[in-house]
Specification:
The chain is α+β, with helices and mostly antiparallel strands and 367 residues long. Helix content is 22%, strand content 32%. It has nine helices and 21 strands. The strands form five sheets. Strands 12-13-14-11-3-15 form a six-stranded mixed β-sheet. β17 and β18 form a beta hairpin. The protein binds (6S)-5,6,7,8-tetrahydrofolate (THG). (6S)-5,6,7,8-tetrahydrofolate binds next to loops.
Length: 367
């Protein structure tokens, strides 16, 4: 059996280069192929912590909202107050359905009042945004632009990106961006990325230049020993970064996902899910996104499965990521657990492929 390439699963414009660089595992994400690893997850974690890594994250596809009503439409789609958002600024946002359930957790970039990009996690948000915009009569076009993010992450990322684009990128605050060119390659340079080690994402605006941009970053990064990587499963658990579709389950709302900071239910403008989110906030979330410390020396089963969390033999949640963390000095995980169990805490059990394990609930992030 082999996975057949077809138009149903799109290759990113960095795909050839990722393969050539040694990507040895990958998975589906937003109808594309997201490289997962280059064969040594622990070394990739070390590089991210101490050096610089480059990641193909073109599978974080863009949903562009453009036109005279773009700002109003984007606010109507988003559960976060966008009233102070400036041109050149990004924000991490929750977008929900009418029941207040999280549909995606994009990074939203405001290019100007009439052009926004939702940089989306793994769900079909384009169709939802199109339907809402059409039904509400907003004067916008909702479409997918030719934009592909390439992440440069780690403590040396700033030096690499500054050597390509100049020192002005050093002044960028978190999630702010500049529209720039490297030689003649058009790029939005944004201080962002799915790690807490610092870095940038280069949003390439011409898919025919994927190999050129990859090669330019590899060359600029060579003095810093840059290497390929992927969204890192160990670091993101240490940092408590949410994986939409990995950690969330059907019906998860932003208050259950550690996204309460990004939801303002009392803003003046209406938005999709507002009434439901007001109610959920008043009642309190049924589950919480928390950390677990497992009472084990190390685990050796593959990550990526969901394991049941138990209390007195009853299922009270799911653990959706686990890692041997040398930084924390423990086996750590992330889980969705019923709120009363979290409040009573701290000890639960996890039903793992290696048997039942005791675990303690911790607040996120670990680091
Ligand atoms: N890159 C791009 N788009 C994306 C992702 C990405 N869209 C989907 C998904 N990944 C979004 N997920 C996150 C989750 C957390 C953060 C960024 C993207 C993040 N969080 C910081 C934190 O938790 O400390 C800061 C958030 C804040 O306070 O505003 O950075 O990887 N292009």
């Amino acid at each position: 059996m082999r996975l057949v390439q077809s138009p149903r699963i799109r290759e990113s414009c960095f795909y050839e280069r990722s393969i050539a660089a040694g990507a040895d595992s990958a998975g589906p994400y937003n109808g594309m192929i997201l490289p997962y690893s280059y064969g040594d997850p622990v070394a990739e974690h070390q590089r991210l912590m101490h050096g610089v890594a480059m990641w193909d994250v073109a599978a974080e596809r863009q949903v562009e909202v453009a036109g005279p009503d773009a700002a109003a439409c984007v606010q109507y789609l988003t559960a976060r107050d966008l009233s102070t958002m400036k041109d050149g600024q990004g924000k991490y946002v929750a977008v929900c359905n009418h029941a207040g359930e999280l549909l995606n957790d994009p990074v939203l970039l405001k290019l100007n009042d009439e052009q926004f990009w939702f940089s989306i996690a793994d769900s079909d948000y384009l169709m939802f945004a199109q339907a809402i915009a059409g039904e509400r009569g907003f004067d916008v076009v909702v479409s997918e632009p030719d934009v592909s993010p390439l992440a440069v992450q780690g403590p040396m990322a700033e030096d690499v990106v500054a050597s390509m684009f100049g020192d002005e990128v050093r002044a960028l605050k978190y999630f702010w961006f500049l529209e720039m060119e490297f030689e003649d390659i058009p790029v939005v340079v944004c201080r962002s990325g799915w790690s807490k080690q610092g870095g940038f994402e280069l949003f390439l605006r011409d898919g025919s230049r994927g190999a050129d941009l990859w090669d330019a970053v590899a060359e600029a990064g060579a003095p810093y020993d840059i290497g390929p990587g992927a969204p890192n499963g160990i670091e993101r658990i240490e940092s408590g970064l949410l994986s939409y579709g990995g950690d969330t389950t059907d019906g998860s709302n932003p208050f259950e996902c550690g996204m309460e900071r990004y939801v303002q239910v009392d803003i003046e403008p209406d938005f999709v899910g507002k009434a439901a989110l007001q109610r959920i906030k008043a009642e309190g979330p049924a589950r919480l996104f928390v950390g677990l410390v497992l009472a084990e020396e190390a685990i050796d089963w593959p990550m990526g499965h969901r394991e049941e969390v138990l209390l007195d033999g009853r299922v009270v949640g799911t653990m959706s990521g686990v890692a041997n963390s040398t930084r924390v000095g423990a086996v750590i995980g992330v889980a969705q657990i019923e709120t009363p169990v979290v409040e009573a805490g701290p000890t639960v059990e996890v039903c793992t492929p290696a048997g039942l394990m005791s675990a303690e609930i911790r607040r996120l992030p670990f680091c």
